[in-house]
Amino acid sequence: MEANGSSGLPPGFRFHPTDEELIVYYLKNQATSRPCPVSIIPEVDIYKFDPWQLPEKAEFGENEWYFFSPRDRKYPNGVRPNRATVSGYWKATGTDKAIHSGSKYVGVKKALVFYKGRPPKGIKTDWIMHEYRLSDSKRQASKHLGSMRLDDWVLCRIYKKKQVNKAYLDPKMEDSSPQIDHFTAANDVKEEQMLKFPRTCSISTLLDMDYLGPISQLLNDNSTYDFHNMLASSAGLGSVQTFQFGDQQNQIPYQSADSAKFQVMMNQTINQPLFVNPAYNNMNGLNH
């Protein structure tokens, strides 16, 4: 909290006291009619105003405001404070926090939340109050028996809780971009097509998979077989490149491995023995 020009405080002055300092140097001095280190906390009965009306009652402050306030009883013979305001009420939350100065117990800090309306149907707001009272406040209350005054002074710090954008906190938010779905579907189709073609150059493997067509067509009296027409019609592939197995002159075309598709074709008569899986060694005309 920074001082403004009308407070008479030096430029750059900040007021960020601890809980202990608020009780020992401010509330205790106020209760015993001694001067505080700086006169920046006004005396205001906060229960006669709604919290959004209090900032203009403060000496200075931007995000939090301090007040010395009396407390009245809710019932003539009770010790519960009356926390009703003009259009709502303050409701305690959590447990009281004991404040110590060294090893000495000096006071209590209580947290409260402001609700609009009347209990029990009040609407919770973002206004928060920290109420500080002295450790001997119960003995002071006994001095006011027969009256509605419960405490002469308590110290109140009031501020409005900042709201956090829920868009950054919701883990269930998903990006349902149709463009991403389109590319995902296209990749799935491409991978499915890739699985249809083996990635090996072994003819025996192709024979084991029955990839080159019925074995009976390969081993019939006609030693030639039109691989090009068979594979081109079934796979629908375009132009290919060729490679050789060892010293053999039979060139076996194939398509670039970058496309992840494999195609085998024979452009001339097979004039070399075929080496295939032993499962076919009893077939007609097969040497191994």
UniProtKB/TrEMBL annotation:
<feature type="domain" description="NAC">
    <location>
        <begin position="9"/>
        <end position="161"/>
    </location>
</feature>
<keyword id="KW-0539">Nucleus</keyword>
<keyword id="KW-0805">Transcription regulation</keyword>
<dbReference type="InterPro" id="IPR003441">
    <property type="entry name" value="NAC-dom"/>
</dbReference>
<protein>
    <recommendedName>
        <fullName>NAC domain-containing protein</fullName>
    </recommendedName>
</protein>
<dbReference type="GO" id="GO:0005634">
    <property type="term" value="C:nucleus"/>
</dbReference>
<dbReference type="InterPro" id="IPR036093">
    <property type="entry name" value="NAC_dom_sf"/>
</dbReference>
<dbReference type="Pfam" id="PF02365">
    <property type="entry name" value="NAM"/>
</dbReference>
<keyword id="KW-0804">Transcription</keyword>
<keyword id="KW-0238">DNA-binding</keyword>
<dbReference type="GO" id="GO:0043565">
    <property type="term" value="F:sequence-specific DNA binding"/>
</dbReference>
<dbReference type="GO" id="GO:0006355">
    <property type="term" value="P:regulation of DNA-templated transcription"/>
</dbReference>
